[in-house]
Amino acid sequence: MEQLKEKIRSEGIVLSDKVLKVDAFLNHQIDPQLMQQIGREFARRYQGQGITKIVTIEASGIAPAVMAGLELGVPVIFARKHQSLTLTDHLLTASVYSFTKQVESTIAISTNHLSPSDRVLIIDDFLANGKAAKGLITIIEQAGASIVGLGIVIEKSFQAGRQELEALGLRVESLARVQALQDGQVHFVD
Amino acid sequence: MEQLKEKIRSEGIVLSDKVLKVDAFLNHQIDPQLMQQIGREFARRYQGQGITKIVTIEASGIAPAVMAGLELGVPVIFARKHQSLTLTDHLLTASVYSFTKQVESTIAISTNHLSPSDRVLIIDDFLANGKAAKGLITIIEQAGASIVGLGIVIEKSFQAGRQELEALGLRVESLARVQALQDGQVHFVD
């Protein structure tokens, strides 16, 4: 997605050879128009696949997921990382290690919102080693729902996430694929 | 906003005389179409006010804030509750106590994204005692930006939040105002 790559080139900051900061439009400040375009692109790639639910993870996955849900006409569920008094239902959980936050956390989705008849599109802001995605997959499988595929805003193609997800037979659609972060520059695949 | 009230009546769950659970469409599962309508209503109420930024707080404020940002054509910033490796900028912070999570947490916004020329609309999912809103106000004032008003999805009018914000001279627009939670029923103002 060329508009996204342009935004990454102009506003992304390479913090190290592994860390790309996109706080200007995705992870802290959000560009709603860009999110709408991202949602449309995910919907275009997954149209006709009978998707009934989108699942993402708080907080940075929510904006692109909601825009995709708007285009596909389906509800969005965001997995919670932090317990709330109102989340009193029976929970499906998985343990996820976050590299950028350097903590292990438990993510949870209420059983009320996923059923075996659901066909799920997983959306997230980043795919690196695939830990967050695998946590979501564990939860969706516990619910007995089907996974149609994943929609990723920015993929770090130099890490193993895509390879591991494809090895599970899953479709991975990433809107920007980063081949390398070198000398302060972002290099994309192709 | 009648469509929102209908949704609260049909899918909200009264957990106690203070706690209303709206996990089916706002706080855990999100209804993107409803969020779009909510965003349009906030935009309608604040049009012509010269708003340049929307500020909200992760995670449940993000969906309505992004939809309002899309309608108003302005960026959205979400205050973070949890430290991230990529949030390395100078931070503006405030301390906020969450009743539903029963924890004190520090919320933060990078100085990169707010300036004295900004005219800010604060959006959040709930207004109860106003603790989260006041945390955001503290941060926005530290940045020297102006606050045009607040846009709240669900106001618990039986708690002191609105009163305290109005006492600060702030405009508060709430799309659903809950007068009481009694006998498992939601009673709205007017």
TrEMBL record, chains A, B:
5-phospho-alpha-D-ribose 1-diphosphate binds at A128, N129, G130, K131, A132. Its EC number is 2.4.2.22. Pathway: Purine metabolism; XMP biosynthesis via salvage pathway; XMP from xanthine: step 1/1. CDD domains: PRTases_typeI. It holds the Pfam family Pribosyltran. Keywords: Cytoplasm, Glycosyltransferase, Purine salvage, Transferase. Residues 33-157 form the Phosphoribosyltransferase domain. It catalyses: XMP + diphosphate = xanthine + 5-phospho-alpha-D-ribose 1-diphosphate. It is an enzyme of class 2 (transferase). GO terms for molecular function: xanthine phosphoribosyltransferase activity. Its main location: cytoplasm. InterPro entries: PRTase-like, PRTase_dom, Pur/Pyrimidine_PRTase, Xanthine_PRibTrfase. It is found in: Cytoplasm. Xanthine binds at L20, N27, K156. Homodimer. PANTHER family: HYPOXANTHINE/GUANINE PHOSPHORIBOSYLTRANSFERASE, XANTHINE PHOSPHORIBOSYLTRANSFERASE. HAMAP family: XPRTase (MF_01184). Converts the preformed base xanthine, a product of nucleic acid breakdown, to xanthosine 5'-monophosphate (XMP), so it can be reused for RNA or DNA synthesis. Belongs to the purine/pyrimidine phosphoribosyltransferase family. Xpt subfamily. This is Xanthine phosphoribosyltransferase. It comes from Stutzerimonas azotifigens.
